[in-house]
Specification:
This protein is an alpha/beta fold and 212 residues long. The protein contains eight helices and five strands, in the order H-E-H-E-H-E-H-E-H-E-H-H-H. Helices cover 46% and strands 11% of the residues.
């Protein structure tokens, strides 16, 4: 049964999705995390012919014995993607570094970057997009994520509890508002309905990922 918390969380979830459709691009860049679904989404896009190169970014050894980038690469290899089409960046520890270090890899490796498909978890789409466009405005970005509903994502999620997912969404929405003022992201308009959902969730105790 849908609760009041779910209704409010879905408002933020829907706002976080950019609803951009994939198009032929120069490369696919995947930001790593504990969740393996973005790697599978990126592999689907590669195998459907949307880009000739796939890049996995992320250190993240707190979750896996190898870096997130290496874990993602192994998924791609099992999916039949040739190793020479895969690049990894395995030093980054946050979204900003994902973008900065991946940019360095792309430039150093002479990978075309006029248009990039960027892949992350669904509820992080907008924050990742805003951060990328601030740090590297030149490429055209298509933001995408695994195709899954809020209800299906939070139900029996093998990586995160529903409480953690909602806390993360609330924290990311606050960052979308505040980080543009600090120069970390481009400015994104937040509809009043979305901000009201944020305030209600904070009042209900979903404040574990807020910044001071």
């Amino acid at each position: 049964m849908e609760t009041e918390v779910d209704k409010l969380a879905k408002v933020i979830w829907d706002y976080m999705l950019m609803h951009q459709e994939p198009a032929p691009s120069d490369c696919i860049l995947v930001l790593g995390s504990k969740d393996l679904a973005p790697a599978e989404r990126a592999c689907d896009l590669f195998l459907q012919g949307y880009a000739p190169i796939i890049i996995f970014s992320g250190y993240g050894k707190a979750f896996y014995p190898k870096s997130e980038a290496e874990v993602y690469r192994n998924i791609a290899l099992k999916r039949g993607i040739p190793i020479e089409k895969i690049f990894i960046e395995d030093k980054s520890r946050n979204t900003g570094e994902n973008i900065l270090f991946s940019k360095e890899l792309i430039l150093k490796s002479n990978i075309p970057y006029r248009k990039i498909i960027l892949v992350q978890k669904p509820y992080m789409e907008r924050r990742v997009y805003a951060t990328f466009k601030k740090q590297w405005p030149e490429p055209e970005i298509i933001m995408t994520s695994p195709k899954i509903s809020y209800e299906d994502y939070v139900k029996d999620n093998p990586y995160y509890t529903k409480e953690k997912i909602i806390n993360t969404m609330v924290g990311d929405l606050q960052r979308i508002k505040e980080y543009s003022k600090l120069g970390f992201q481009i400015e994104q308009k937040i509809p009043e309905r979305v901000w009201q959902a944020y305030e209600k969730l904070v009042a209900m105790g979903y404040n574990k990922r807020l910044i001071s």
